[in-house]
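hey
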């Protein structure tokens, strides 16, 4: 065999081996590319799922926040309505004619005198004469109230608050759920 044939044969063998290596490299590159694409797709799916869960959670949180805010606003509006209702009742009590007011004050005096061995009373300036006449007690001083009075014992240690303001507040506290259901259904 001539040198030329040997070189030719080596070149052929080298070309076959290099083609085999190149083909093997291409196959490996395709496999690596395929695995990478699969990893990317899985990662993408996880990210999309996680993002969807986060968005969903945020929506639920926001919705719950909005519901809470609406409930709070609704309760505040109801409170304002009930407060204005009691303010109107207070205004009506202030406008009572003398006979109606006297009747109410007599009942309150009976109740107050059961609680306190009263010597003095406090009231607004407008009711001073009437309460003095009805009770026979000594006037101490004027107080801010829409009507009624506060009785006090001789020592000044025990008091009985029979003001319209306090009575209305107690009625409101005791019956708020009933009042609310009647007003708002």
């Amino acid at each position: 065999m001539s040198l030329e044939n040997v070189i030719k044969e080596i070149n052929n063998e080298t070309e076959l081996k290099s083609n085999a290596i190149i083909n093997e490299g291409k196959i490996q590159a395709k496999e690596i590319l395929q695995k990478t694409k699969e990893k990317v797709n899985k990662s993408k799916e996880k990210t999309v799922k996680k993002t969807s869960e986060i968005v969903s959670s945020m929506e639920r949180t926001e919705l719950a926040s909005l519901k809470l805010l609406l409930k709070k606003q609704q309760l505040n509006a109801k409170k304002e309505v009930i407060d204005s209702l009691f303010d109107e009742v207070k205004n009506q009590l202030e406008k009572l004619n003398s006979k109606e007011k006297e009747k109410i004050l007599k009942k309150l005096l009976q109740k107050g005198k059961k609680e306190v061995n009263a010597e003095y009373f406090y009231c607004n300036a407008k009711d001073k004469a009437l309460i003095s006449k009805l009770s026979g007690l000594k006037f101490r001083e004027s107080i801010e109230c829409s009507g009624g009075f506060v009785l006090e014992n001789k020592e000044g240690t025990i008091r009985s608050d029979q003001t319209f303001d306090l009575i209305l507040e107690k009625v409101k506290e005791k019956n708020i759920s009933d009042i609310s259901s009647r007003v708002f259904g």
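Helices lie at 3-94, 98-115, 128-135, 164-184. The two ends are 114 Å apart (CA to CA).
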